[in-house]
Design brief:
Keywords: Electron transport, Membrane, Mitochondrion, NAD, Respiratory chain, Translocase, Transmembrane, Transmembrane helix, Transport, Ubiquinone. By secondary structure, the chain is an all-alpha fold. The protein is built from four helices and no strands.
Length: 118
């Protein structure tokens, strides 16, 4: 039990140290007008640098991330299918998970988020 507590404490401390190092390295020490203006080869910027982009592109990117994460969640289960370690409850949980994912795809399809034409 002590090893588990020690490894958990070490993981938390390592995470905090990495967080603080990232925050320190990411700090901007000097923010001025020239720092925040876009650089266009020495010329004065033309127009706004904050050009709006299509919300459909953002939605498509979010859908990709969601379904990419579900592939990562499914990979260990696929490797276990057919082994003696897979119990009936595991098959039921896999079936429910796949039904939820299929329901999400159907919802996105009906909503029109999977249309590729802009």
């Amino acid at each position: 039990m002590e090893k588990v507590m020690l490894s958990a404490l070490l993981a938390v401390l390592l995470g905090l140290i990495l967080l603080l190092v990232g925050l320190f390295l990411g700090m901007s020490f000097y923010i001025g007008r020239e720092k925040v203006s876009p650089f266009e080869c020495g010329f004065d910027p033309i127009g706004s640098s904050r050009v709006p982009f299509s919300l459909r592109f953002f939605l498509l990117a979010v859908i990709f991330v969601v379904f990419d994460v579900e592939i990562v969640l499914l990979f260990p289960v696929v490797m276990m299918v057919g082994s003696s370690y897979m119990l009936v409850g595991s098959y039921l949980a896999l079936l429910i998970f796949l039904m939820l994912l299929f329901g999400g795809v159907i919802h996105e399809w009906r909503e029109g988020s999977l249309e590729w034409e802009m």
